[in-house]
Amino acid sequence: MKIPLSPILACLVLCSSLSAAQQTMPSKRAVTPVHLGTYKVGSNEFIPNSASTRSGPDVLYNNNLATGYYSVPGADQEWIDEGGLQDRGDLQLTQINGFEFSYCSTEPDPTQNSGGFTINFYREHQICQLPAGDGYPDGSDCTYDLIGLPLGTANGGIQCWVVNVDLSGGFECSGDQAFYFPTEDAAGVNRLFGWGFIPHQDNTGPFLAHGGHRNDNSFVWWDAATQQLIGCFWFGGWPVASFAMRILGPPPNVFEYGPDEPDVNDTLRLLSDPAVAGGMGHWWIENPNPGRWYWFMATLDWNQSPALGGTLLVDYPNLLPPTPLQMPGGDLTVPLPPVLPDEFHTQAVETNAPNLSPSTVTAFSTSTKNSNWKPQNKSCSVTSFTVPKNKTACKVVDAGSGRKKVGQEFLMEARFGATNPECCEYRQYLKGEFKVGGTVLTHNLPGGKKLEKNKYHEDGIRGATPPTNEHYGHRSEGDQDTTDVYSNPDRATGKNYDGYDFPGITGTPPFTYSIDLVFKGEIIDVCKCNKVVKSSTWKVKCSGTVNQPEPAQIGLRQLTLEVDNVPVTIQFSLRENREMRAIVSFPSGPESLVLDASQVDLQLQGHTPLSSPAGPLLQTVLREFANSHAFYNFDWPENLDGQWVQGTIAVLGSEPVPFQIQL
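Given the sequence above, the corresponding structure tokens read:
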């Protein structure tokens, strides 16, 4: 039921009395919004008075017919609006690389930079309901925190603003090569997307507008502060209960990706027109540097690996011929063959000489994925989808060798129709974090990815070897993994899918832990361009303390390096008792393979540790494969703050690798 709501009614009134919430009140007039500038998420900087943006060029959604009114949720209140992203061709998947929103405020702001907002995007939403899944509110598919924006005048006079938000360079929604933002699928699911507006100050709210595709005259109110659903609201008919939003994206069938952890030479942006078999392909560097040469690479698959102060985002060295190709002036137009792969990935590098070699490379670009999927004359039919199934409460189990594992178990079960079951495949994604002693641990995922708090990546095991599969649900992987099974009759054509997972932390007590993960399971139709057919979201959330609380963390630095082709992250966290904790994290294989302290050797020049790892190393576990973590503590008086420290790290019997870091 929609509840009439005054645009100036605060949450305090709503929460105190439902009858008060049902009253219709006068709307609050806005002033004409002023274009404020562009917020670049990649560099976390705001460029005032800038109307230019690198987002687009296509407009995916436009809800900007002004009403002349605005409304105020209250601090940390989320209002969720909805709309439809229209299908564009056969591939019913897209990507958001920028958006524009408008707001008004009467909150006094003498500095004109005190405002903060969170904008959430949800791939699926239903009118007058919360976005699907028990992961809400952490279940947003993309989250952006914006700071340093103006509110009202210094004395609290009304001001209204329009802000462009540029997501290019690795912050797109979605920014993971295996996770997509689906369009409405008008002939099938006919889905809506949702977007949430959260101001972090009072007297501030969205500018009301209409005109967006399939936008409804309603919105959902979620109290992010108390974690409670307030209800579904409108303003009695006029003004329309929807918010100004324009969403931008790349051309159809083109996706752009950047590195998760950009290095100093990750400075270029590669753009692309759609690649059509038998046509002309066009790729170009945005703002190429004079006096430099550019080289174009293409591969069937993607990866992410550090190289020469930058990041390779293609599956180097497995290049598609005839690449690498020179890009004169950073621009390449080439004839494409009459048959193209279903998808391929591209990247460019810059050199300071007319030859391509490690000694001449000066910069790396973002990557593009060009999709050429064509729907087949068959499709996936799902008869049941029970994900997760039999999810347990948080539990502690014995893990052998004096260790304990804490986490939650669950099953994934799907059943497909008798016709064309091979079209149906399961996928599993996750985001979140593991913590021990208040410090976030690094957990590696396939494709050079790492577990991130607010960004979904495909769940899996980095460097998995048979019989273990790297991912869940890929029929092309092996048929001996008992946690990832297609049957009735076999992996290639089975009508049954059954998976198992027990994400958690394994260590030798005592330790303090926190597990905060959000999972998303989906059935995709590989015969219909990977169209999302079914989806479910859930959380794994556990925490506990088996010893006295540890001194609080007051500073954090980290570095990542390759040690004999093993990605190793070292986190240095300064505690309030002036101890420096160093945590060495690296992928270590199956959970059953217990590594001890002899497999890690961290040395800091001139510093003797107060404590070093002893016995079995602590593990974080996804899909029964582990990342291991070794803990060191050093005395760290104040006179050492800000100084450069040299050291070496060795893991798994490697030779020591030198490093330096400013702590």
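The domain at 553-662 is CATH 2.60.40 (Immunoglobulin-like). Try to locate this feature in the token string yourself.
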